[in-house]
Write a structure and sequence with these properties.
Blueprint: H1 2-28, H2 40-73, H3 91-119, E1 129-136, E2 139-144, E3 149-150, E4 156-157, E5 163-166, E6 170-177, H4 186-191, E7 212-216, E8 221-225, E9 231-236, E10 247-251, E11 263-269, H5 271-278, H6 285-288, H7 299-312, H8 318-324
Parallel strand pairs: 1-6, 5-11
Antiparallel strand pairs: 1-2, 3-4, 6-9, 7-8, 7-10, 10-11
Helix pairs in contact: 1-2, 2-3
Bound molecules: copper (II) ion.
Residues 212, 251, 253, 255, 259, 262 line the site of copper (II) ion.
Length: 325
């Protein structure tokens, strides 16, 4: 019996080691399983994912150890085609294999719920910023509750094409799928009647858009964008987007032929940069990231320098900008 246990424990330890290594390999030889983390709430989700991975390795290793043990030690002799002895009615085992998974499911559920509650503890009234996210075939448009956007020429802009948020603001994303051609309903209530500037959706009627899903992988948060239904998620960025970072809002629900191109840039900027951007809301994240470079001057002069630089070198670094400025 002792020998059996020793072998079982040996297989268990070996499986734990091998599966742990397999989990760690991508972290040792690359960027890891997840993209860079940029939100406070996403940190809790990562912690949960790591905890569940450890739990999964333990459970997998117990199962694998028993399977390996059986395969190695209870193998039939060559030429033995007889069936195994039928066994049924072992109450203890039935109780064990019911109770343990039930406990695991409850623990996972409670932990996940705790993370969700913590991540959503700031109420809609207390968030620093609310962004209305409009998903359509095939693109994204963003407007900001209580913030008037204008383009660089001073013309009012109903929506921006890039998602720009101030770093550290608890930001709530109110999401809906709207083609922009709806004549009535929740889309019109939120976004008003169709505007001439609204991007032309790839549909020929005024009916609502298909479903999409709003996802910023670096923030770890994702929520469905459903036609005629308000959904929301919220997260708080913890760092400004730098020149070597490229983050995007991605559609996470297969929504048609243009689904894979349904993405737009996302960036987190300083409160001052955000303030400036609201009056230059046609400026993209690609440009805004360069405001983190250590270059003197007013926003307008730095913007001019960045534009000039990017016109000749779309891979420019902060050093290039310092030389140019
Ligand atoms: Cu989509």
């Amino acid at each position: 019996m002792d020998k059996q246990w020793n072998r079982l424990v040996g297989y268990f330890v070996a499986t734990v080691v091998v599966s742990t290594l397999l989990v760690l390999v991508p972290n040792m030889f690359g960027g890891g399983w997840f993209p860079d983390l940029v939100s406070v709430e996403g940190g809790r989700i990562d912690d949960l994912a790591i905890g569940l991975t450890i739990l999964s390795i333990v459970i997998f290793s117990i199962v694998a150890a028993i399977v390996i043990y059986c395969v190695v030690h209870f193998r039939v002799a060559p030429g033995d085609d007889s069936d195994g002895e039928p066994i049924h009615g072992h109450h203890t085992i039935e109780v064990i294999w019911t109770v343990i998974p039930a406990i695991i499911v409850i623990v996972v559920g409670v932990l996940s719920y705790a993370v969700l509650v913590k991540n959503e503890e700031v109420s809609a009234k207390e968030v620093d910023k609310t962004v209305f996210v409009r998903a359509y075939q095939f693109g994204w448009a963003f407007s900001y509750d209580g913030v008037a956007l204008t383009d660089s020429d001073g013309e009012a802009l109903k929506e921006s094409t890039d998602l720009v948020v101030p770093v550290g603001d608890v930001t709530r994303y109110e999401v809906m799928a709207c083609s922009g051609r709806e004549q009535t309903g929740l889309c019109v209530e939120r976004y008003g009647p169709p505007a001439a500037k609204t991007p032309e959706p790839n549909r020929d009627s005024d009916q609502a858009d298909v479903n999409h899903a709003f996802w910023v992988p670096e923030a770890r948060l994702k929520i469905d964008a459903v036609s005629g239904v308000h959904t929301w998620t919220q997260f708080t960025t913890d760092s400004e987007t730098t020149v070597d970072q490229h983050m995007q809002v991605v559609c996470a629900e297969l929504c048609g032929s243009g689904h894979n191109g349904m993405r737009t840039d996302f960036c987190s900027v300083s409160p001052d940069t955000f303030e400036w951007w609201t009056e230059h809301a046609d400026v993209t994240c690609n440009v805004l990231r360069y405001f983190t470079c250590d270059v003197e001057g007013s926003y307008d002069s730095r913007y001019a320098a960045i534009e000039t630089l990017l016109a000749t070198d779309d891979d420019a670094t902060c050093d290039d900008l310092e030389v140019a400025a």
